[in-house]
Amino acid sequence: MLIEFITAHREEIIARTRAKVATRLAPRATQRELKTGVPLFLDQLGEKLRRRPSLPTATIERTAAVHGAALLNLGYTVAQVVRDYGDICQAVTELADEIDAPITTAEFHTFNLCVDDATAEAVTEFTRLRDQSMAAGETERLGVFAHELRNKISAVQLAFQAIQSGRAPTRGNVAAVLARDLHDMTALINRALVEVRLDSGNTQRRRIDLHEIIEHAEIDGTLEAGVRGVSLSVTPIDRAINVNADPQILAGAVANLLQNAFKFTHRGGHVSLRTTVIGAHVEIEIEDECGGLPPGKAGELFAAFQQRGTNRSGLGLGLFISRKAVEASGGILRVRDLPGKGCVFTIDLPLLPLTS
Q1: Domains along the chain?
Q2: In the sheet where 281-287 sits, what is the strand order?
Q3: Structure confidence by residue, pLDDT tens digits, 278-293
Q4: CA distance 88 to 12
Q5: pTM check: above 0.70
Q6: Distances in Å between the alpha carbon of 127 and those of 21, 57, 80, 242, 305?
Q7: What is the spatial distance between Cα 286 and Cα 275, in angstroms, rounded to a whole number?
């Protein structure tokens, strides 16, 4: 019977499901994703298959709703919620077929109905919470964005007036503040444009020459590095490297990471931008000299409204948006801590084959 099969092979089913989830390109799976949702679902499913009246289908649906809410909090999409339950179903079916388990057609029918009910409830709860959080979050985000932009504009106006009146030299500290705030305003607006494009789903992936993205990043980055008082080095890139990505979104991700590196690198420090081909992938690395991360904080950097270090300026959205932008290009964004020195952010993208 199916219930005995699930009970006897519970750990194997979970392991297989985790293996399937691990093959996803984006977002990358974590142990936390499956630690509570899948085991709970399997336990409740087993009870449902025993047809115990004390545990109606609603219990499974409530468990699925909790799973949907957890995935939303972790930044997953509704597609991942659906796939999560689909992977469970596939793992059970494949294992049963491999060992020729004595499971009846009626049991499989009940099992598929339970999976369908759980998926629907998870998606419903996921969508409800997402819409609810977006309604509140977008208002808050817009307000913070407008507030920060207004502060930058006010600072620029005051600096310009001081220079215009002759009270400050064109190459002094006031001029440096003016240049820095203008760069910050440009970064704010560019980041907002990338986010709008990502949220609307209006991505336009195509074959692009990666050297164009890197060269533009070097031009803009050199200017900002000078304003921030840090140095920037960029390794030469092979002009034959091509990737499949939306050029605006990928350029926005690289620019965000560079701006983040400049922001947290100490004055007089160094930021490097490297591009390396490894097998069928290309890695874009941005290394800073922020001093390193507190223990256990690397995994929190890519969450929305999280900020690094003691510098609390900004929305805390740059790394969150960068991760979304890289994943929209079929890549992975990860961070490596260099204790006492800094961080290395790596964009990992699949290479496109050379054209003939």
Answers
A1: 2-134 (1.10.490.70), 204-350 (3.30.565.10)
A2: 231-234, 270-278, 281-287, 342-350, 332-338
A3: 999 999 999 999 998 8
A4: 11
A5: no
A6: 21, 21, 12, 36, 21
A7: 9
